[in-house]
User: What shape does this take?
Amino acid sequence: MIDLDVFQQYGGRLFSGLLVTIELTVISITLGAVLAALLTWARLSGPKAVRAGAFAYSYAVRGTPLLAQVFLVYYGSGQFRPELQALGLWQLFREPQFCVLLTFSLNTAAYQSEIFRGAVLAVPRGQMEAAKALALRPFLATFLVVVPQAIRHGLRGFGNEVVLVLKGSAVASVVTVYDLLGATRFAFQRTYDFQLYIAAAIVYIIIVELLRRGWNHLEARFRLKAAR
Assistant: This one.
């Protein structure tokens, strides 16, 4: 039997947790995309030392668990408290939500950079050569010719990364950030009603399904434009 009293009592907290989950996902994906664009440029066009640094960063981030990265930033930042205070940054790093946002953004940037790099490399080199033959400057050729085609190649991978960040945001609950899972655990510890976890799982499934359908629609529109 569904205990509606439990959901009536903790529904507001669960909804607030859902908003935190969405906020973490949107901000992390956005900031990560900006950093990923820089990493992609570094991997493809930067000097040798810059390419090596970008590769090392991507390799290290993708090779370690997200939970370990969250702990490293959240608990590790305390080891540098005097330095952070001197820079006026300690007020930020003492907040769990900021540490989580920073970690998620740095983590997804590494994965997104691989998606972007693969998408750019999937564009035939002849496209860039043709743009140069039309006397387009490299900057314009990149953004008018290469980037639109790379978006089509990388759209599915980027959509998968958005879903992974959404589900991975549940890690935030281990450092007292009350996202959807954190709010669910808070309510469960007071009611021991397992239906709360089932409800949270259903919410995640609904969000992922909405993202999947939206991404399929977006891909279909890009394919239609390409066909024209």
